[in-house]
Design goal:
It is built from 3 helices and 19 strands. The protein is an alpha+beta fold and 323 residues long. The strands form 4 sheets. Strands 10, 11, 12, 13, 16 and 17 form a 6-stranded antiparallel sheet that branches. Strands 1-2-3-7-6 form a 5-stranded antiparallel sheet, with no helix packed on it.
């Protein structure tokens, strides 16, 4: 048999073997994967659902069929321009009916991704479901906008977030260090309590002015203060609940405002306290750390140059000799 005939016969043999193996595989079926423990099979789907449900607020532009839909392409720097957006519901139509939460149908939070430039505002709702407000930021950069709202008929609220640019040269700022006291417009605000990773923590913020406690804070958004907490890096929006309410017979109008904060992880957080006194709302800002601060990576050792081997005369010169 010549060489071409031999190669052709060999190729035909491979085709036959492959076809036979393929037919056998189809007849027998794929090898069964090892059985996972029964408990895991039973809990795979709920575990996935729980993981999605446990995701901190504000990290998604859509949740449970609701979607934050910006109409404006970006944010204005300096002079205010109309900023517009919609909340689109599971029926793919703009939501027009909301449940009042903290005295408002919707709260809009705007902050630069380095956690500076915080604003908490309340836009107006048009009949067609469009939210609108004149808005400006002071510096260029990438911003995160959060819509905090509760659709009518829904048992709980949602916080959806989206990134929007403010055109210009972006110069990020480092996060201020953690502190217990900050000042704003002549007011001193002091933070007591620590954030607890993976649990709820009680935070107490006390307001004073000129060294004297402020005991006549005015109600703002259904409480004597409103607190927003954002996690560094991903800007997760944390659930913070005020303790008590004006007129409940037990909550004093300052100097302390008490909140309960649920913190999902260790790390740095930025806290923004809105409080009202003498007819004006002010915002006090803090950096707080939950758990131990992450340790910086160890510095790489500097490269060393191997020392040359000592000569025989040098080796004997230090008094060490070979017998």
């Amino acid at each position: 048999m010549n060489t071409p005939i031999k190669l052709g016969a060999f190729g035909l043999g491979l085709v036959v073997v492959f076809t036979a193996a393929l037919g056998l595989g189809r007849a027998v079926g794929p090898s069964a994967a090892p059985d996972a423990p029964t408990g895991h099979n039973q809990h795979d789907a709920p575990a996935t659902a729980a993981a999605v449900a446990a995701l901190p607020a504000g990290l998604q532009v859509t949740q449970d069929g609701y979607r934050l839909q910006p109409i404006s392409a970006g944010l204005a720097v300096g002079a205010a321009k109309p900023f517009q957006f919609r909340i689109v519901g599971p029926d793919d139509k703009p939501v027009t009916d909301y449940t009042v939460s903290h005295d408002k149908d919707l709260h809009l939070i705007v902050v630069r991704r380095d956690l500076s430039g915080f604003q908490h505002v309340h836009p107006d709702l048009a009949a067609d479901g469009t939210w609108s407000i004149p808005l400006a930021v002071t510096e260029a950069g990438q911003y995160r906008v959060f819509a905090d709202f509760q659709p009518a008929g829904r048992a709980d609220g949602l916080t959806l977030g989206a990134d929007l640019p403010a055109a210009g040269d972006y110069q990020p700022r480092p996060l201020p260090p953690a502190e217990r006291t900050t000042t704003v417009d002549g007011y001193t605000v002091t933070l007591a309590g620590d954030l607890t990773p993976g649990g709820s923590a009680q935070l107490s913020l006390s307001v004073s002015k000129g060294g004297k406690p402020v005991t006549d804070l005015q109600p703002y958004l259904g409480a004597y203060g409103h607190l927003v907490a954002l996690r560094e890096a991903d800007l997760a929006y944390l659930h913070v609940h005020p303790d008590g309410a004006p007129g409940d017979g037990r909550t004093k109008a300052g100097p302390e405002i008490v909140f309960h904060a649920d913190v999902p992880s260790t790390g740095n957080y930025r806290l923004y306290l809105d409080f009202q006194h003498q007819g004006k709302v002010r915002t006090a800002e803090f950096t707080a750390t939950a758990g131990a601060s992450p340790s910086p990576p160890p510095a790489s050792p500097a490269p060393t140059t191997p020392s040359p081997a000592p000569s025989a005369s040098e080796h004997d010169a230090d008094g060490h000799t070979h017998g």
